[in-house]
């Protein structure tokens, strides 16, 4: 018998004798002298139907073949007379491999809430929705690598444990071999690394090392925030993609961001059509329109100053009410409501806002000639808001030093980062994209816990 | 001007007018009324040579164009009359973008020791050797993803922060928002996750969740060991690849391991020929022979018990001396000297040892019918020793429970792992391969610090 996966069986070109299908039972229906068994093996969303006739080898086990049971079926792949399926399996023998007790198995045919499924994250990929989600997640990761490799970018594994708290983005987790539950202070001098250590919040500074040696590079790895906020958009552990390009300015950076998003959407629609359709049908009816826009519309490129003007002009609704909760003026960081107004209502397509006030942005962003703004950019998409944030980096040693001093950062910590400017400095630029944000964008799922295999949030560390 | 990368220029099919080359100067030689400038942009190992004639725009900056300086050259791509290079650039203009002070720039033309280069890990990818290394690392990661995707495996991001210390492999780092340097005990109840948290040592248990739902899966992510050992083969942070297959036994697992190694070697030899040649020439003269063997020889499959017999027969050298430092008897864990004898001297090719004594292996490995051995396997390759370790997993709930009790492990911690056996259990198998070990294997580099962008070892947390 030749084992084939359900995906291969369902896309067969012709009937086949002597195949073996291994998988888990999704449903079983008993007929007169036979049973229909729907089998899924995780290779695709669809099940394959097997017809098992009474008296076949294994028939005696049929009472124990219920939802969730693992079975192996030998048979023929034949054209299905039924609707909605081209192929089915006519069984010659069935083996029950692993039973699933119908009283205690948590995944019965009824629909389960996302909350409940989070409590059984070890079983939820066996459902249609989460099976589809994690197949899409896998393919999206592949598409990221393929996009960059096709463009001759090199993949860099930036370190996860870091000794610098100068990455400049949010609260960090400590990494230690000391036990804080022990009484008495324990010195970092005696810790594993001989100094304070933390989990990285960004691979950017490392990416800059490699951009200024290998040219175009990217990181794609886990990053961490110890922020004690329980929101649907924040997780303590998430994956981030950070390209970095030498000999590149803010405009090249915007080009890359736009191409990247278009590529990912196109790739996933092509390679995950069946799984994507589940989300368009059951999770977000506007999903296809959003993805059409990302794929086909030219992204608006909007200086921050003009964005503020637009927001000010639209501060009141037609009915004269305040449109925004947070007041708008030049110098503010855009709030989600502002971003969503620009991309969803004003332009109705993706918008790249650039040249932000220096005071709301990080020290490493390149100072513009106006002395007031830096060459930062955020890509905003409908429904999601900010999906990409990046900048051209300050490549001028003296300007960077002045910024570090101005912001009161510990200059000595940056010695190697300065060296990149001291020796053969070049204009360079890059951005970061949260991988989970991307998955929320392409599926319409609104809770980050539902796009991560084992999500980590405050007080949640199961599985 | 159209910027092209050095790699593209050197593989041009025909001459081109109006190109721009951006990169860093590796060497400059002054002639009479002109200068040769060798430029590297990280896109490949080779430099491209530019001829800059006296009086061209930018010529006045030439005294400041030294090793390490960043330059941009406009010119024509023309056939080179020189030896060893097909193309060169005849400059029309040169711009000095970033100077590198020749007194203080650490990377001068002379050869530097690996030790020294580790102290400037932010600059070492600008050398030939480390540029080649990190291009190979990038391509190897791509090859890993491509191998699995071509075979319909799904990529799973297993969690980095874990609440279970039951992954069963070595010392773990703690993850906390407490500060152990503070006096007084701090309770884990009040920590970020409300319980003890650690950095993962393996994604296997998570991979089993997804193998028993999506079918064939793999993880590829960072893993951590807090072992305070300073050896050339150990790092505190390293990347690991862990495939896991449902409906698969130890033999299918061995097949996959062998195919995987052959594929990776073949892929890298094809796609990184120039970079690999550097290591074969300068780092390890036996490299090509080793890689030939991995690529072309059928791996020996050797039960542990037979391996012990072979070692016992060869316990003495021809001259009657003890061959091994560690005594051999049935039940021992094989030492590196034993593994290397089998693969380098006895068989002279890769060897897969399988069916190890249960007492030296982890609780989750499948018990064989003999009651003494488990379905574990290690792949040994010449010069490197163990490159892959894996097993068929215990899929029988009662046998697994008995093992967990026998080994005194906290059964309640494994409730979800047990569930995978409780509901639709299936035979499944997988293995782990250290990504850095692979890189050491394909380059001949013997210190793990030299295959990682920013290595983490005891008391080393720079960059």
UniProtKB/TrEMBL annotation, chains A, B:
Keyword Oxidoreductase applies: no
GO-annotated biological processes: asparaginyl-tRNA aminoacylation
Residue ranges annotated for the Aminoacyl-transfer RNA synthetases class-II family profile domain, each copy included: 134-453
Gene3D superfamilies cross-referenced by the UniProt entry: Bira Bifunctional Protein, Domain 2, Nucleic acid-binding proteins
Keywords of this entry: Aminoacyl-tRNA synthetase, ATP-binding, Cytoplasm, Ligase, Nucleotide-binding, Protein biosynthesis
Enzyme Commission code(s) on record: 6.1.1.22
Annotated localization: Cytoplasm
Principal subcellular localisation of the protein: cytoplasm
GO annotations of cellular component type: cytoplasm
Enzyme class name: ligase
GO molecular function annotation: asparagine-tRNA ligase activity; ATP binding; nucleic acid binding
Cross-referenced InterPro entries: Aa-tRNA-synt_II, aa-tRNA-synth_II, aa-tRNA-synth_II/BPL/LPL, Asn-tRNA-ligase, Asp/Asn-tRNA-synth_IIb, NA-bd_OB-fold, NA-bd_OB_tRNA
UniProt keyword Transmembrane present: no
Listed SUPFAM superfamilies: Class II aaRS and biotin synthetases, Nucleic acid-binding proteins
Highest taxon listed in the record's lineage: Bacteria
Catalytic activities: tRNA(Asn) + L-asparagine + ATP = L-asparaginyl-tRNA(Asn) + AMP + diphosphate + H(+)
Pfam families per the UniProt record, alphabetical: tRNA-synt_2, tRNA_anti-codon
Family the UniProt entry places it in: Belongs to the class-II aminoacyl-tRNA synthetase family.
Record's subunit section: Homodimer.
Stated name of the protein: Asparagine--tRNA ligase
Source organism of the structure: Desulfovibrio ferrophilus
Lineage: Bacteria, Pseudomonadati, Thermodesulfobacteriota, Desulfovibrionia, Desulfovibrionales
């Amino acid at each position: 018998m030749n084992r084939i996966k359900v995906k291969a069986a369902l896309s067969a070109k012709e009937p086949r004798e002597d195949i073996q299908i291994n998988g888990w039972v999704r449903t079983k229906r008993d007929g007169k002298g036979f049973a229909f068994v729907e089998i899924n093996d995780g290779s695709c969303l669809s099940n394959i139907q097997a017809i098992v006739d009474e008296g076949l080898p294994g028939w005696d086990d049929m009472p124990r073949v219920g939802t969730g049971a693992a079975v192996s079926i030998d048979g023929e792949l034949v054209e299905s007379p039924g609707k909605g399926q081209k192929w089915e399996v006519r069984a010659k023998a069935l083996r029950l491999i692993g039973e699933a007790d119908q009283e205690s198995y948590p995944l019965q045919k009824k629909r389960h809430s996302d909350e409940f499924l989070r409590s059984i994250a070890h079983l939820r990929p066996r459902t249609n929705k989460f099976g589809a989600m994690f197949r899409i997640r896998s393919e999206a990761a592949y598409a990221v690598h393929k996009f960059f490799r096709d463009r001759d970018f090199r993949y860099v594994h930036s370190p996860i444990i870091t000794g610098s708290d100068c990455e400049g983005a949010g609260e960090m987790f400590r990494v230690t071999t000391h036990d804080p539950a022990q009484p008495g202070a324990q010195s970092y001098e005696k810790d594993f690394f001989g100094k304070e250590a933390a989990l990285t919040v960004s691979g950017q500074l490392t990416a800059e090392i490699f951009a200024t040696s290998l040219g175009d590079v990217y990181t794609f790895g886990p990053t961490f925030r110890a922020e004690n906020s329980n929101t649907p958009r924040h997780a303590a552990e998430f994956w981030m993609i950070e390209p970095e390009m030498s000999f590149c300015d803010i405009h090249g950076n915007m080009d890359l961001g736009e191409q990247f998003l278009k590529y990912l959407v196109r790739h996933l629609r092509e390679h995950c059509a069946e799984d994507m359709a589940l989300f368009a049908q059951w999770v977000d009816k506007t999903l296809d329109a959003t993805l059409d826009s990302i794929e086909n519309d030219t992204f608006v490129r909007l200086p921050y100053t003009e964005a503020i003007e637009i927001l000010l002009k639209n501060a009141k609704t037609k009915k004269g009410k305040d449109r925004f909760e947070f007041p708008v003026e030049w110098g503010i960081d855009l709030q989600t409501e502002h971003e969503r107004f620009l991309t969803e209502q004003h332009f109705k397509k993706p918008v790249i806002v650039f040249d932000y006030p220096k005071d709301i942005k990080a020290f490493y962003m390149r100072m513009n000639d106006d002395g007031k703004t830096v060459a930062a950019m955020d890509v905003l998409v409908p429904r999601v808001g900010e999906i990409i944030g990046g900048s051209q980096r300050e490549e001028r040693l003296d300007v960077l030093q002045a910024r570090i001093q101005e912001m009161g950062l510990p200059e000595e910590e940056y010695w190697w980062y300065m060296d990149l400017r001291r020796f053969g400095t070049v204009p360079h630029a890059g951005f970061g994209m949260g991988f989970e944000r991307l998955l929320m964008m392409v599926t319409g799922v609104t809770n980050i816990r539902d796009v991560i295999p084992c999500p980590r949030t405050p007080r949640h560390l199961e599985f």
